[in-house]
Structure formats: C-alpha cells, structure tokens
Amino acid sequence: MKKKISKRKNRCRGHLLIAPNPLLQALCHEVKPDIPKSYLTGVIRELHHVLTQHKNGIGLAANQIGILYRIIIIKSNNNFRTFINPDIIATGTVMTVNQEGCLSYPGVFRKIKRFEEIEVSYCDENFQQYTEWFSELESIIVQHEIDHLNGKCIVGER
To answer: Is-catalytic flag, 145?
Structure first.
C-alpha cells in the first residue's frame, strides 16, 4: 500500500516563531523567478496575516514564520509593502540610536544604532526590480528585517 504524501508539506507555517528557535538564526535563500507564483503568493499572504495578528508589529521576515526565503513585509503609514530579495546597496552617513523590539523576542527591547537613511534594491511579487531610498522609521524597519534574513536579530543578542 502506498503512503500518502501530505500536500501541506510545502505550505507556510502560518505562525510566529519565538526565540530560541534555530530558524531565526538561519540564513535565508534568494527567491528565484521560477518559484511557483502560488507558493510566493501564499508566503506573502501568511506574512501579512501574521503581522496583522500582532498590533504592535511593523515588520516581519519570512524566517520568522519558518520560511527560509529572502522576503520581508513592512507596515508603514497603515500600508503594507513586500520586498523580495532586499539588499542594502548604500547608506547615508548619519546614524541614529532608537529603542527596538522584535515580535520573535517578546518583551525584549534594546537601544540599537542604525543608519538614518539606506538605499535598498529589491523586487516586487512580479520580480520587477526597484531601487529606493528609505529614511527614519522605514529605514530602521527595513534594516531590522534584513538582519533577520541574514540570520541575526540584534534585539535578541546577548
């Protein structure tokens, strides 16, 4: 008798990972244009869903829901934006110190020094390439989420 293969195997996890979880330190993989569109859409939908479940959340990286792809979502001015394969390609010269928290490290807050302005290269869901400057809070959110994609979270470091 053949064993049934679960169709849920490749679906999104759909819940927020809390430290300590080894996936939070995992290096995320580049998203290739040949990824199935339905899978990519599902990951983005799950990121949006999980972020909206946390009223204080303003950003989320795919590895925070157990998906090891370079995808982040941020909430800015009540709008959600998705970034695929984001990469910081330039920074301003001014750094600022702000208190940050992280959904995967509940109750932990730390003062962190980050660039006030960054230039980011990224793709949208259709793999249209963009380059954009971010400043102030958006800059901090994007830097924080890209850190997650690189397997680190300064908020959770000891």
So the answer is: yes
